[in-house]
What we know:
Layout: E1 2-8, H1 14-23, E2 28-30, H2 31-41, H3 43-53, E3 58-59, E4 62-63, H4 65-72, H5 76-98, E5 105-109, E6 124-129, H6 132-143, H7 147-154, H8 160-163, E7 169-172, H9 176-193
Parallel strand pairs: 1-5, 1-6, 2-5, 6-7
Antiparallel strand pairs: 3-4
Amino acid sequence: xxxxxxxxxxxxxxxxxxxxxxxxxxxxxxxxxxxxxxxxxxxxxxxxxxxxxxxxxxxxxxxxxxxxxxxxxxxxxxxxxxxxxxxxxxxxxxxxxxxxxxxxxxxxxxxxxxxxxxxxxxxxxxxxxxxxxxxxxxxxxxxxxxxxxxxxxxxxxxxxxxxxxxxxxxxxxxxxxxxxxxxxxxxxxxxxxx
Length: 194
């Protein structure tokens, strides 16, 4: 099955754009959401994260995200090690999910698609961007994070100008209706090329 990889930095609106494709009958795999679920319940991930960051990384409800974030977003080596634990498990989970889909193509939404080389396993890529201040506003409303924490996390993602040349498609998500129209055009283009 063909795969459209959809990516964009925090607050770009990639989940909203992905939901439009879902409305049009395209199966959507949310890699970041699945990574959260898997990191809570997969015993292999749990064991390796505890070895990396300590017992306090987990409580009875699963991974303590705020604790883990406080460790890895201030240490590039720890962040890379955490990604090396979680991303292979998510990739395997995606492959199993993909084998169960029945559609012209599917969409894989991932925040760090290019950064991890995940784009190499996609037939096309779609990058969602938005101005920095608009992204920060969205994240504050959604996640209730401080501006400082948001900027620290954004710093760990590649800047848009590095990702734009790598993407097959690009939507600037500043106005939702215009972004939806652009996504619909891409969807129709992909259907006509399959």
